[in-house]
Design goal:
Elements (H helix, E strand, L loop, with lengths): L1 H8 L3 E3 L5 E3 L3 E2 L8 H9 L5 E3 L7 H11 L7 E6 L6 H15 L6 E4 L11 H17 L6 E4 L3 H10 L6 E5 L7 H10 L2 E5 L11 H10 L3 H11 L3 E2 L6 H8 L8 H8 L18
Parallel strand pairs: 3-4, 4-5, 5-6, 6-7, 7-8, 8-9, 9-10
Antiparallel strand pairs: 1-2
Helix pairs in contact: 2-3, 3-4, 4-5, 5-6, 8-9
The structure holds NADPH dihydro-nicotinamide-adenine-dinucleotide phosphate and 1,5-anhydro-D-fructose.
NADPH dihydro-nicotinamide-adenine-dinucleotide phosphate (NDP) binds next to helix 10.
GO molecular function, one term: oxidoreductase activity
Family: Belongs to the aldo/keto reductase family.
Organism: Erpetoichthys calabaricus
């Protein structure tokens, strides 16, 4: 176990526009597939994970408080991201939802708070208006120090362009689906040009990439698993990645990605892979740029 910790202690970070450093590898905690207290404690205590991605929607913020407490890891050593769910969009509700997430997590600040999806739900206001109002509350949460960084998730270029008209703080992060089958390069480039850090979610495409012949061949070549190839690929592209597993042995496997390197030709292969399967969030464009 100590060896893994040593490797993760060297886990690179990605700098946000305000200078904060985000560990490039985090742990996802989506409700899909369930929550495992043991896996989270194991990730923190035994694997050296210091970055947790969660959301009100996942329903596990209170469980995470318990896992963090049990891990014994100090608050200031952790990077905790949570997200505002669509039913809370709006000025007052956003502020309240953030404080409630903090309370459930047992923290007095979040490292990063994201608007989970671009489309809020309100019968009376247009989405752009809701987003602007919501963002104003996010900016205040940032100014008040409740959130050390603020951002968005699943925003397309059009959403970011609209938000630009209304915001005084540019989102620090845009968290979007990113794996070898879904490579929104135009969006990645746009974010970079605006000083927005692009973060990848769903890095294993929930397992769909594991049977791809190119990925399985690379796994054989490097004597690694398909999951490790995908995680390493994201890291080598400089993209923050947050795989989730409820199994301790897989959490460990997903962390063992700092002791090998994909050759440039193999990185390029994955950067140009033709997806063999359509993935999640089907309402979104399929990117393979
Ligand atoms: N902002 C957003 O809208 C979204 C954010 N996210 C975030 O990204 C995180 C990761 O995405 P997620 O949707 O969970 O999916 P992932 O791409 O991380 O895949 C998770 C699935 O892969 C399995 N798995 C994990 N590691 C391995 C391994 N080494 N070998 C084989 N199978 C493995 C898991 O099963 P098992 O548990 O059995 O190991 C689980 O079924 C989320 O948990 C969430 O935090 C995700 C989707 C949308
Ligand atoms: O983060 C996520 C995980 O699951 C949700 C579905 O309930 C998604 O909407 C979301 O993007």
């Amino acid at each position: 176990m100590a060896a893994t910790w040593t490797r993760l202690a060297k886990c690179p970070t990605v700098a946000l526009a305000n200078g904060l450093q985000v560990p490039i590898l985090g742990l996802g905690t989506s409700h899909q597939g369930g929550y495992s207290h043991r896996a989270v404690v194991y990730a923190l205590r035994e694997c050296g994970i210091r970055h947790i991605d969660t959301a009100k929607r996942y329903g596990c913020e209170s469980d995470l408080q318990e896992a963090i407490r049990e891990s014994g890891i100090e608050r200031q050593e952790l990077w905790i991201t949570s997200k505002l769910w669509i039913t809370d969009y709006g000025y007052q509700t956003t502020k309240q939802a953030c404080l409630e997430s903090c309370r459930r997590l047992g923290v007095d600040y979040l490292d990063l708070y994201l608007i989970h999806w671009p489309d809020g739900r309100s019968p009376t206001t247009s989405s752009q208006e809701i987003r602007a109002e919501t963002w104003r509350a996010m900016e205040e949460l940032y100014d008040e120090g409740v959130c050390r960084a603020i951002g968005v998730s699943n925003f397309l270029i059009s959403h970011l362009e609209q938000l630009k008209e209304d915001c005084s703080i540019v989102p620090h992060v845009n968290q979007v689906e990113y794996h070898p089958f879904q490579r929104p390069q135009e969006l990645v480039d746009y974010c970079q040009s605006q000083g927005i850090v692009f973060e990848g979610h769903c890095p294993l495409a929930k397992g769909a990439v594991f049977t791809d012949p190119t990925i399985t061949e690379l796994a054989k070549k490097y004597r690694r698993t398909p999951a490790q190839i995908c995680i390493r690929w994201s890291i080598q592209n400089g993209i923050i990645t947050i795989p989730k597993s409820t199994k301790e042995e897989r959490v460990l496997e997903n962390c063992q990605v700092f002791d090998f390197c994909l050759e440039q030709q193999d990185q390029d292969l994955l950067n140009h892979l033709t997806p063999t399967r359509r993935m999640i969030h089907l309402t979104y464009p399929l990117w393979n740029g």
